[in-house]
Design goal:
By secondary structure, the chain is α/β, with parallel strands linked by helices. It has 2 domains: 391 residues, Alkaline Phosphatase, subunit A; 78 residues, Arylsulfatase, C-terminal domain (2-Layer Sandwich). Helix content is 24%, strand content 17%. It is built from 11 helices and 22 strands. Strands 7-6-5-4-12-1-13-14-2-15 form a 10-stranded mixed β-sheet, sandwiched between helices. Strands 17-18-19-22 form a 4-stranded antiparallel β-sheet, covered by helices on one side. Helix 2 packs across helix 6. The longest helix has 22 residues. The protein is globular and about 65 Å long. The structure holds 2-acetamido-2-deoxy-6-O-sulfo-beta-D-galactopyranose and calcium ion. 2-acetamido-2-deoxy-6-O-sulfo-beta-D-galactopyranose (NG6) binds next to loops.
């Protein structure tokens, strides 16, 4: 009898041990507009990123990893839902007053963790809409939002750093708001008496680039997209955004040091307006864009240090990536173009943010989990949309068939046990223009979009003719082989059409 007890106790202990090992804490660190060539580990020589290099040394560096899209909202939609964003209209770059576009009644990445008993949090940029309509009262509880799609705790800014309202929300409420100074937000017409970039350019501490917009309500000396009034004391100071996000994240990690947690840490660097903390200004030689990347790197280092000091480093899995490719001038005269000094933010890739070329969507991607992952590099094709199915596998959670169509279980590739990721991948720049990659071949479907975005100096990859590139031999997408290889064009076109129909 005693023996049986011992056996049962041993088995229970072993299974607890196994579960503990199988169930790491997970932190997804998501940069905004960070390019494939922006980090030392991906070949940058003009910006020092020692902390991300350190993360890379203890993990796997992927060189064939992708966001689904070349802008923010669709990529984040895919990350959260495990669904291709182009299947749904209204998943393009959202204004700051948009309604929530993530369904509350469907599975999401944070829900996978929540169902498995994790504490879940988002800290940082959201950009997936809030509330159930555009017209909303920013002075009351705003629902639904991140808390309704799976996050136990949220500390966010609603859209982008260049869009109003320039405030933080903790769970459902704007923080720092005073009753007698309510906030109003409007994307159609001016509200209140705040100066705008257009009416009072002399008040700007950073000028907007000509023709980009960014000349509506001025907050902290920076013209924004959209109008807001009120909430004077609730408005953020750009220089403090990242240190705020860091300290909130560190609190969450500290509070959950004894139980499994999932943290989605969505940083704003190096998205515009680049206005790093004063101690980072001038740290790189590349202007505020380089400084912002160094601030991002330092912030990641702070998280790594904290995990070490709490003895959590070994059992915490970190995914680091970016929502889309890089852009130098995205609306402000911040020196990014003038001081770039030969830095190649997209590395050897063609295009950048907004583009169908690889520069738009192939992004840095590092997975670290010291307890279980052997450091190295991987050529496996992986996409952020796959995190949902892959973590569902890790946590033994079932997901609906609908999600399995787009989100592939690439868990073994993520932890370096397999060199194969997904076999094909569809990416988009907006809801109309699509590309499909299978193995070494990439097909860009013909479309009527402009070829070159003058405002941002980026080749968009649009063409009325079909394009076919061999990414193995021509990662820079210089040689269109569509005419030479019509059979491959046909095959990819068919696969694209079939996947679209599903
Ligand atoms: C563009 C903005 C750009 C940036 C982008 C969103 C203009 C001319 N440009 O429309 O500055 O805010 O939207 O970036 O308004 S993203 O990374 O969030 O997708
Ligand atoms: Ca972005």
């Amino acid at each position: 009898m005693k023996k049986q007890y011992y056996l049962i106790i041993c088995l229970v202990l072993i299974s607890i041990g196994l579960r503990a090992q199988e169930r790491p804490n997970v932190i997804v660190i998501y940069a905004d507009d960070l390019g494939y060539g922006d980090l030392g580990i991906y070949g940058a020589t003009k910006i020092q990123t020692p902390n991300l290099d350190r993360l890379a040394r203890q993990g796997i560096v992927f060189n064939n990893a992708h966001a689904t899209s070349s802008t923010c909202t669709p990529s984040r939609y895919a990350l959260m839902t495990g669904l291709y964003p182009w299947r749904k209209t209204g998943t393009g770059v959202l204004p700051g007053d948009a309604a929530l576009i993530v369904p509350t009644d469907k599975i999401t990445l944070p829900k996978i963790f929540k169902q498995a008993g994790y504490q879940t949090a988002i800290v940082g940029k959201w950009h997936l809409g809030l509330g159930d309509q555009v017209e909303k009262d920013w002075n009351n509880e705003i629902k639904p939002g991140p808390n309704e799609v799976g996050f136990d705790y949220s500390f966010i800014f609603p859209a982008t750093a260049d869009r109003v309202p320039t405030v933080f929300l903790e769970n459902h409420r704007v923080i720092g708001l005073e009753k007698e100074d309510p906030i109003t937000v409007n994307y159609k017409e001016p509200v209140g008496n705040d100066p705008t970039g257009l009416s009072n350019p002399e008040l700007l501490k950073m000028k907007a680039s000509p023709n980009h917009g960014h000349n509506q309500t001025i907050v902290n000396g920076i013209g924004r997209i959209g109008y807001m009034s009120g909430g004077t004391k609730a408005r953020w100071v750009d220089e403090e955004i990242t240190s705020s996000f860091l300290s909130v994240s560190q609190n969450f990690i500290h509070q959950n040091r004894d139980n499994p947690f999932f943290l989605y840490f969505a940083l704003t660097e190096p998205h515009v307006p680049r206005m790093p903390a004063t101690i980072f200004k001038g740290k790189s030689d590349l202007g505020y864009r380089g400084d912002a990347i160094m601030q991002l790197d330092w912030t990641v280092g702070q998280i790594l240090d904290q995990l070490e000091s709490l003895n959590l480093a070994e059992k915490t899995l970190i995914v680091f990536s970016s929502d889309n490719g890089p852009v130098l001038d995205d609306g402000y005269q911040d020196g990014a173009v003038v001081l770039n000094n030969g830095h190649t933010p997209a590395g050897t890739l063609r295009g950048g943010k907004y583009s169908l070329f690889e520069g738009g969507t192939r992004v840095p991607f590092i997975v670290s989990w010291p307890m279980s992952i052997k450091p190295g590099t991987s050529n496996a094709m992986v996409c952020q949309v796959d995190l949902l199915a892959s973590f569902a596998d890790m946590l033994r959670q079932e997901i609906p068939v609908e999600n399995k169509l787009d989100s592939k279980n690439i868990w073994n590739a993520l932890i370096g046990k397999s060199s194969t990721g997904r076999t094909s991948l569809i990416k988009n720049s907006n809801n109309i223009a699509l590309t499909i990659t299978e193995g070494e071949w990439k097909y860009i479907a013909p479309n009527n979009g402009v070829k070159y975005a003058k405002l941002v100096s980026i080749e968009l990859g649009n063409d009325t003719e079909p394009q076919l590139y061999n990414l193995k031999e021509d990662i820079g997408e210089q040689h269109n082989l569509a005419e030479k290889k019509p059979e491959i064009v046909e095959k990819l076109k068919k696969l694209l059409e079939e996947t679209k129909k599903k």
